[in-house]
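Researcher: Let's do a round of design. I'm pasting the C-alpha cells now; please hold your answer until I've finished.
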C-alpha cells in the first residue's frame, strides 16, 4: 500500500479546502493522476477486493505516514481514490448521527462496493453524502 502512503498527504491537503468546489476539483485531479492504476488493476484481477481489507491496509499505510494526521475521512478518501482508480466500483459514504443524550454530532466516512452497503455503518451513521457510481448524492 505504498500508493496509499504517498497519496495520503495530497488527500489531506485537498480536504483542508474550505470550499466544496475546490475539494471536488482536487479529488478529481488526484483521480486523474491515478489513471495508470486503472489499466493495471482491471487486467490484473477478476473481482474487487473486500473494502474492509483495503481499509485496514490503508489505515496501516497512513499511520506510518508522518505527514498525515489519520482520521476516517482521510482514510476513506484515500481508499476510494485508490480503489476507484484501479477500476473497482466503489462508493465513498459520509454518515452522521446525533448522540441520544446530547446535541453532539458524530460523523464517519467509509467505502463500500457499489450495490453492497455496509449495513452496520449505515445503521449507526445514516448517509448524508455518497460519492461514486458516476454521481454524488446527498441527503
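Researcher: That's everything. Go ahead.
Model: Designed sequence:
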Amino acid at each position: 500500500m505504498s500508493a496509499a502512503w504517498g497519496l495520503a498527504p495530497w488527500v489531506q491537503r485537498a480536504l483542508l479546502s474550505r470550499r466544496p468546489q475546490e475539494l471536488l476539483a482536487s479529488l478529481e485531479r488526484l483521480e486523474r493522476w491515478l489513471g495508470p492504476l486503472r489499466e493495471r488493476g482491471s487486467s490484473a484481477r477478476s473481482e474487487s477486493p473486500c473494502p474492509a481489507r483495503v481499509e485496514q491496509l490503508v489505515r496501516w499505510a497512513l499511520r506510518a505516514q508522518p505527514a498525515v494526521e489519520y482520521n476516517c475521512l482521510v482514510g476513506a478518501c484515500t481508499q476510494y481514490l485508490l480503489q476507484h482508480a484501479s477500476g473497482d466500483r466503489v462508493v465513498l459514504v459520509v454518515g452522521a448521527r446525533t448522540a441520544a443524550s446530547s446535541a453532539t454530532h458524530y460523523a464517519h466516512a467509509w467505502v463500500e462496493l457499489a450495490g453492497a452497503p455496509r449495513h452496520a455503518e449505515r445503521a449507526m451513521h445514516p448517509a448524508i453524502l455518497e460519492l461514486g457510481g458516476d454521481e454524488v448524492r446527498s441527503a
